[in-house]
Amino acid sequence: DTGVSQDPRHKITKRGQNVTFRCDPISEHNRLYWYRQTLGQGPEFLTYFQNEAQLEKSRLLSDRFSAERPKGSFSTLEIQRTEQGDSAMYLCASSKKLAGGHNEQFFGPGTRLTVL
Amino acid sequence: DQQVKQNSPSLSVQEGRISILNCDYTNSMFDYFLWYKKYPAEGPTFLISISSIKDKNEDGRFTVFLNKSAKHLSLHIVPSQPGDSAVYFCAANRYGQNFVFGPGTRLSVLP
Q1: Which residues in chain B are contacts of A48 at CB distance < 8 A?
Q2: 8 Å CB contact of A43 and B49
């Protein structure tokens, strides 16, 4: 299966700890996105990369959050000094850049973070 | 300020009947709309999309209708099957910008 994969699937941590999540996109996709989803809400955009360049960051992405895509392939999302409000599902998606400009995004299964 | 709204949190439909899921948006600059389906413990899966230059797009049992003047779109599933039971998200974007998702509607198809 060559879909989007995310690791870990679940993470439980104590408040104040740092956590890092990994996303492996579909191999030929040059765009990679991070979203956050809380209960009863749809995915909320956090940031996206085209190849290794981080092109946009949402205001939801506080300075405790950092994302990287060092070689334009996999990406990591780190949350420093976690807070209980960070508890959510973190979704990664990837897509190709199409000539028409619009593109469907393929999502991974998500990492569920619980901050105690 | 929710730009994409799905006002029905849940919907129950009998197997074999039509399911109609609704979505409203406020940003008239949106020009591309998508529906995603999400099962528990999985990421959203793309279902169908429509560009603002069209008012209907069909793919098998799934049809999306777009009413630009009303800023409204709907997803029709006919006939509904138990395997269609999932949360459905409407999403929209403007060319070059990122998707905005609605809060989702949980569809239950009863056998």
Answers
A1: 98
A2: no
